[in-house]
Amino acid sequence: MLVQTSDWEKIESDPDCVVAFTASWCAPCQQLKPQIAKASVRDSGRNYYVVDIDAVNPDVLESYSIQSVPQLFKTSLGLIEKRISGRTADDILSEINS
After folding, report:
1. In the list 1, 21, 29, 89, which could disulfide-bond 38, CB 3.0-4.6 Å?
2. CA-to-CA distance for 66 and 3, rounded, in angstroms?
């Protein structure tokens, strides 16, 4: 399921999810969002969260060392398990499941 949120408590309570840090003004982020949506449909057992960096607490960005967007992570209970560099649905899913 794809969820756009700034509710960090929801993400921190999710035991297995993908978090995508994006921004509304970021062209590469806008190009990536459809790929994230495709991955979320094909991987329906896991939540996918899209977080706009301008709407989230700056402490969250600091804890994830977000200095540029887009950034994708596989997380468990708010902790990074894997940084995802794929930019297509196939690549995203391949990295998550490897």
Report:
1. 89
2. 20
Q: Does pTM surpass 0.85?
A: yes
Length of the chain: 98
SS3 per-residue string spanning the chain: CEEECCCHHHHHCCCCEEEEEECCCCHHHHHHHHHHHHHHHHCCCCEEEEEECCCCCHHHHHHCCCCCCCEEEEEECCEEEEEECCCCHHHHHHHHCC
Tens-binned pLDDT, residue by residue, of the chain (98 aa): 788 888 888 999 999 999 999 999 999 999 999 999 999 999 999 999 999 999 999 999 998 999 999 999 999 999 999 999 999 999 999 999 98
Contact of 30 with 4, CB cutoff 8 Å: no
